[in-house]
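DATA SHEET
Item: assembly model
Revision: 1
Owner: S.N.
Input lines:
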Amino acid sequence: MEKNKSASIVSKLRPALVGFVVLTLICGVVYPAIVTSIAQMAFPNQANGSIITVVQENGTTIDVGSALIGQTFTAPQYLIGRPQGTSQLSPVSEEQQALIKERVVWWQALDPENSRAIPGDLVMASGSGVDPNISLEAAEYQVDRIARVRNISAAAVREIIDRYTTRKLLGLWGEDAVNVLKVNLALDGRIP
Amino acid sequence: MNQIIIADSLYLVILVVLSIPLGFYIDKVMTGQQVFLSAVMRPVERMIYRIMGIREEDEMSPKQYALAVIFFSSLGLIFVYALQMLQGGLPFNPENLTAPSWDLAFNTAASFVSNTNWQAYSGESSMSYLTQALALGVWNFLSAATGIAVLFALIRGFVRTKKTTIGSFWVDLIRISFYLLIPLSLMFSLVLVAQGVVQTIGPYHEIVALETGITQSIPLGPAASQIAIKQLGTNGGGFFGMNSAFPLENPTTLTNFLELLAILLIPASLCVAFGKAVGDNKQGRAIYLVMMILFVGALAAVTVSEAIGAPLVPGVLASGNLEGKEIIHGVGTSALWGTATTAASNGSVNAMHDSFTPLAGLILMFLMQIGEVVFGGVGSGLYGMLGFVILTVFIAGLMVGRTPEYLGKKVEPFDMKMVCLIVLVPPVFTLLGTAVAVTIPQASDWLTNSGPHGFSEILYAFSSMGNNNGSAFGGFAANTLFSNVAGGLIMLIVRFVPLVAVIFLAGNLANKKLVAKTEGTLSTSNALFVGLLIAIVLLIGALSFLPALALGPIADYFTAIT
């Protein structure tokens, strides 16, 4: 009698327990293993963080960053990206307005000759905090300064910016964007 | 603005066009018909039934179905909790992450088992690869499959007459996983990887920043496989803390578009599948239309507010509200994503909702507060909306003095009790959680913003957890003992009380006989009914939440600096 009872409980729980184990193994082991294997074979660079590797003067290679993760640039010879970090502040709050005004002052001090209005993305932080891109307007805003400091033509700077600009999807979804790290590596002559 | 209008419209057209064949496909799968995947999946399916020791044709009573769901989900809750607590000593942990606090582990387990994916943790600094894939990733699949399974139990309730069973939870669960979620996720994750979403078991990559010389850690992991199902299954829990705003989770305009599409794809398809399954496509179309109208209205309001709602600063170009948004997504697809992710109970983000303008924030909150029925969670969104449909039929019946009926089934007191549980449990616990939170003296320490926007952070958090959404106003410090425990309990209650009520409603409906359609039968597929249903959904939401919204986003709007 006792044995029968426990046997019937086990037989009742069996579908749940076995189903749980099987589905956990398939969704949690087999599925990610298949995706990882294919990814590592077919798309090794993308699957490992889109790392940019450059050859140094002594012939060795060095990783200089991820094409998808923004780095901090503040020097005038570089294309400068968006403020790092995420504020989580309301755009209509005084704290946020004060932050923006501080950044406006910083930009004007960096390049006093430039009296144009500053593109919004240069004074507003991104969501990820590490946005690798800036808008076309934000890149154009900085062309003259970079050309002047590096003593090269504005056309040369624009040419590099254009090379590392990605376009919106089918001209509709998202925005055109300039990859800051790639432009700076190209300006330094470390990537084509 | 024109570009945004065209892009949004085309997005919706593509969604509708894809949802029709997928909806028919889901109906076929759930009724055991032959589909193109049958040749591969049918033998696998049969083998799994055999080792589970069940027969496909053995069906469950409502009580058995509910017990199966609860027991299965409880196993998940325990497993997800245990794996987090033990992760420090387990493999696939290259960053040597240790166990989170017990309350955070409980909150996370409750969150993933309830298809909420509220995250009080940040993936890259808290969860090992093993925990992500084997616990969180798995429950992305299984919580989604559970929601769809229960929806089909309810559909059987409408379709069947004089029956005591509503299908087998195990068969439903297996079919949804193997014919729908796994194949779609597999395809989708490979596209994501090709575009730059990471997928590796190797350790984080350290690099030295070009100008500053500071060492920067690039977080990695088996992300793409998890992000695919996170978008498709209205889960929304990011592999990384910043979710799909983080470039390694959503690197290009193409991934952004596809991840956006994936948010609404299955919830929209289920409207089509519903119509097909109850044998009257017009019924599915009416509900689809209600969701679409509410969605488009919300989308327009959010987009306009984000484009022109932020104050202009002297010396800065008018570029729309870019705070908290990635450049590649811009105002347009960030507003679209925000609307889609709160309409569906997805909860993933590609921009920071805390930094949305007050009126946009209000709409996002309200989409959650009306019970996640505008597309909503996979399965749960539609069964929630069907709760509102029955409520609407009931109210209309009262007005004209006729016995209310829906799809040929009389709506009786027991059914209305279940509907009340479905419709009222989420708002009650949302408000309760918010009310208790604001009485805690330390509450102001949890906030980034002050004043009405600070209150909005709390209201948003409990609206999100109280409706199984999972998105957040990121300025809210979520990892506190109170928020973890209270939020965890709320997520479980608002998921499983309505879900069990749906199962018993299904059982009660299946048991009834069909009543003949007459001249006086209220049509539930015409324009009048569509309007009535929209009004009821908005009314219940407004009655529950207007006072709270007035203290939060509405006050925020009127006190905003301009």
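QC remark: Chain B touches chain A through 113 residues (CB under 8 Å).
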